[in-house]
Write a structure and sequence with these properties.
heterodimer; A: mainly alpha; two-stranded antiparallel ribbon; 11 helices; B: 17 helices; about 75% helix; globular
Chain lengths: ~290, ~350
C-alpha cells in the first residue's frame, strides 16, 4: 500500500468522524451563540449506549446506531430545557462554566458506571478486515464510516438548503432577531436543532468507539478537537465544519505519520495559525 | 439600553463643557482614594492567614499549596475578573514559571528569590508575546486561542524530553535556603512563610494596580469594549499590559510550586490545572481580588478532605458545584456574602 494513499484514506475517515461529532455544535453555536462545552458528553453517551446494547444485550451493531442517536438527542433535550435555556443571554464565561460542570458530572458518572478502562467492542464480521481494490488497500470500517458520514452530510445539506425547516434555521443563524421579527419561533427551532445536533454527536460517538476507543475522558479529549473544528470552520457553517474537519483530520493523521516528533503539536499550530488568519473561521461571516 | 447610555453620555459631555474646576478633578481622585483604604474585613483576612502556624501546624504543607494556588487564581482574576478575558489556558504561564525555576535549580542555581524573578521574567515575556494574539480576539476565538496556546506548550514540553524530562517530570531540583539561612523543612514552615509572604506582596501590587486609573480602564474594557475606544482608551495596549502582568504573576506561582515541592511534572501545563483555577475563581467570586484567594482555600481544603475518594467522584462534586454556583450564586461566595450584607443593611 502506498503510504500516501493510506494516510489520505485514514485522514479522510478521521475527518469524517470529527465532522459528525462537531456539526451539531457548529449550528447551535451559530444560532444562539451558546458555548456548549458539553457537546462531546452527548457523543460519549452515544458511544456507551452502543457498547452497552452490544455487549450486554447482544444487539447487532447497526441496530444500536439509531438508538445512540435517539438517546443523545433525548438527553440533550432534557438538559436544554432544564439548564441551558436560561443561559442563552448569559456571558461566555457563565455558559462555559455551566457546560464544563456538565462535562465533569458526565465523566464522573461514566467512570462510576463503566470504570475508567477502554470499552471493548466487537465489530460484525463484514466491517472487520480490509479488501484490495485497484491495487489499494481499504479498511472496511473506515470505508463504512466515510459512507455513513457522506450520506449524513448530503442529507444535512439537502435538509438545510431545500426544506422549510432548513430555511428557518438559516434565517435564525444569519440574524436571530430578524428571524424572530418575522414570526419564526426561534426557541422551538433551537430546541429541535440542539436535539438533532446532539443526536448526530451521539451517532458520531457510537461510530468512534471502533476507531478511537471509548473511556470516560472521551468527553474532554474530543471536545478539544470539536472546538477546533467549530472555531476554525466558522460558526453555523456546515460547509465550513466539513472543510475544517477534513483539514484537521488529514493534518493530524499526516503529522503523526510523517513527523511523529511534532505530530501532536501540528494540530494546535494549524488551529492557531488558521484562527489568527481568520478569527471568525474559514467560512465565518460574523 | 440605548436611551440610558445616551443620557449618561450627554451628562458627560455637559460635564466636559463646563470648565474643569478643582472640584471636578477631585471627584475621581476621591473615589479611587476611598477604594484604596483598607477595610476591617481585609485586615482580619490577612491575620487569619497566620492561623495555620498556631492552629494546624501539621497542615502547613497544604497551607503553602493553598497560598500558591491562591496566587495563581489572583493572576487569573486580574485578566478574567477585571478585564473580561476568558482563558482556558492560563496554566501555560504557570508552567513556564515552574519549568524556569526547576531548570535553573537543576542546572545548579537553586537560589530561590532570584529564581522567582527569572521565572516571572520568562513567564512575563511569554505572556507579552502571546498578548499580541490575545488582545485581537474576543468570544469563542479567544477561548480557543488561550486553550490552543496552552495545549501547544504542553505538547512541546512533552516532546522536548531532553530538556523537561517529558512525562517523567523534571528530576534533581534542589532549592537553596532562603537568604542562605532558612532551609525548606519537611513540615512546610519555611514553604508556607515564603509562599504567604509572596502572596501578600503580589496581592499588594495587584490591589494598588486595580485601584489605579489603569485598573478603572480595565473594568471599562470588561463592561463595554465598544465604548472604551470611543472615550479614548487604548484597549489593546491595556489588555497587553495586564495580560503580561498576569502571566508574570502566574509564573511566580509556578516557580513557587517548583521550589517548594522540588518537582515539576507535565501536569503544571495541563488543561486540568487551567480548568481547576477557573473553578476556584468562580467559586470565590470574580473581579473581587479576594475571590480567587477564598476560592482556592475552599477548593483545596475540600479536596484534601475528600482525597480518600476516587478523583473521578471528586470531579462529580466539582461539576455539581459549578452548575450550582452558576445557576444559584452568580458572583461566587463573595458575591453571595456581599448580597447578604447589602440586604442586611437595607433592613434596618
Amino acid at each position: 500500500m502506498p503510504p500516501v494513499f493510506g494516510v489520505l484514506f485514514d485522514g479522510l475517515a478521521y475527518g469524517m468522524l470529527l465532522f459528525l461529532l462537531s456539526v451539531g455544535l457548529s449550528v447551535t453555536l451559530g444560532m444562539m451563540n451558546f458555548v456548549n462545552l458539553a457537546h462531546c458528553s452527548f457523543a460519549m453517551l452515544g458511544g456507551y449506549v452502543t457498547v452497552t446494547l452490544m455487549n450486554a444485550l447482544g444487539w447487532p451493531f447497526l441496530a444500536t446506531l439509531p438508538v445512540a442517536f435517539v438517546a443523545a438527542a433525548a438527553a440533550s433535550m432534557v438538559l436544554e430545557r432544564v439548564f441551558f435555556r436560561r443561559f442563552y443571554r448569559a456571558s461566555d464565561l457563565e455558559q462555559c462554566l455551566l457546560t464544563i460542570g456538565v462535562v465533569f458530572v458526565s465523566i464522573a458518572a461514566a467512570a462510576y458506571i463503566y470504570g475508567t478502562d477502554q470499552q471493548p467492542l466487537q465489530l460484525p464480521a463484514y466491517l472487520r478486515g480490509s479488501f484490495v481494490f485497484a491495487g489499494l488497500n481499504f479498511a472496511a470500517y473506515r470505508l463504512f464510516l466515510i459512507a455513513v458520514a457522506l450520506c449524513i452530510t448530503i442529507a444535512l445539506i439537502a435538509g438545510i438548503e431545500a426544506t422549510r425547516f432548513g430555511a428557518q434555521v438559516r434565517a435564525a443563524v444569519n440574524n436571530q432577531r430578524m428571524a424572530r421579527g418575522l414570526g419564526i419561533n426561534v426557541d422551538v427551532l433551537f430546541a429541535i436543532t440542539f436535539a438533532l445536533g446532539s443526536g448526530l454527536a451521539g451517532l458520531g460517538g457510537a461510530l468512534a468507539v471502533a476507531m478511537v476507543g471509548l473511556d470516560p475522558s472521551f468527553a474532554f479529549t474530543y471536545l478539544i478537537y470539536v472546538l477546533i473544528v467549530v472555531s476554525v470552520g466558522g460558526l453555523g457553517s456546515i460547509a465550513g465544519s466539513f472543510a475544517a474537519a477534513m483539514v484537521l483530520g488529514l493534518s493530524d493523521i499526516a503529522g503523526k505519520y510523517y513527523v511523529p516528533a511534532i505530530g501532536s503539536v501540528l494540530i494546535y499550530l494549524v488551529m492557531i495559525v488558521l484562527l489568527m488568519w481568520r478569527p471568525l473561521g474559514l467560512f465565518g461571516r460574523r | 439600553m440605548i436611551p440610558k447610555s445616551g443620557i449618561r453620555f450627554s451628562e458627560e459631555i455637559m460635564r466636559q463643557q463646563s470648565p474643569m474646576t478643582d472640584q471636578a478633578l477631585a471627584a475621581p481622585r476621591d473615589y479611587l482614594q476611598a477604594q484604596i483604604r483598607w477595610q476591617w474585613g481585609e485586615i482580619v483576612f490577612w491575620l487569619a492567614t497566620l492561623l495555620p502556624f498556631v492552629l494546624t501546624p501539621s497542615y502547613l504543607v497544604l497551607a503553602s499549596q493553598i497560598a500558591i494556588t491562591a496566587l495563581f487564581a489572583l493572576s487569573l482574576d486580574l485578566i478574567l475578573g477585571f478585564c473580561g478575558i476568558v482563558s482556558l489556558g492560563h496554566a501555560a504561564y504557570f508552567g513556564v514559571g515552574a519549568y524556569t525555576a526547576g531548570l535553573l535549580s537543576k542546572w545548579g542555581f537553586g537560589e530561590p528569590l532570584s529564581g522567582l524573578v527569572l521565572a516571572a521574567l520568562a513567564a512575563g515575556i511569554f505572556g507579552y508575546l502571546s498578548s499580541f494574539i490575545i488582545a485581537r480576539f474576543r468570544h469563542l476565538a479567544l477561548i480557543m486561542l488561550t486553550l490552543g496556546l496552552a495545549l501547544l506548550l504542553q505538547e512541546i514540553a512533552n516532546s522536548a524530553s531532553w530538556l523537561t524530562g517529558g512525562s517523567d517530570g523534571l528530576q534533581g531540583i534542589h532549592t537553596w535556603p532562603i537568604f542562605g539561612r532558612f532551609r525548606f523543612d519537611l513540615y512546610g514552615y519555611t514553604a508556607y512563610t515564603y509562599s504567604l509572604a509572596l502572596l501578600f506582596v503580589v496581592f499588594l501590587v495587584a490591589r494598588r494596580l486595580i485601584h489605579s486609573p489603569f485598573g478603572l480602564a480595565l473594568r471599562g474594557i470588561r463592561e463595554n469594549t465598544t465604548r472604551m475606544p470611543a472615550i479614548g482608551a487604548a484597549i489593546r495596549g491595556h489588555i497587553r499590559t495586564i495580560y503580561t502582568i498576569a502571566a508574570a504573576i502566574a509564573g511566580i506561582a509556578g516557580a513557587l510550586l517548583a521550589q517548594t515541592t522540588e518537582t515539576v511534572s507535565l501536569e503544571v501545563l495541563g488543561f486540568q490545572r487551567s480548568a481547576d483555577v477557573l473553578v476556584m475563581l468562580i467559586l470565590g467570586g470574580t473581579g473581587r481580588l479576594y475571590g480567587g484567594l477564598i476560592g482556592a482555600a475552599v477548593y483545596m481544603i475540600a479536596r484534601d478532605q475528600f482525597s480518600g475518594l476516587n478523583p473521578q467522584f471528586w470531579y462529580f462534586w466539582i461539576g455539581l458545584i459549578l452548575i450550582a454556583v452558576v445557576m444559584l450564586l452568580p458572583g461566587g461566595i463573595l458575591g453571595g456574602l456581599s448580597r447578604l450584607a447589602s440586604r442586611a443593611k437595607d433592613k434596618p
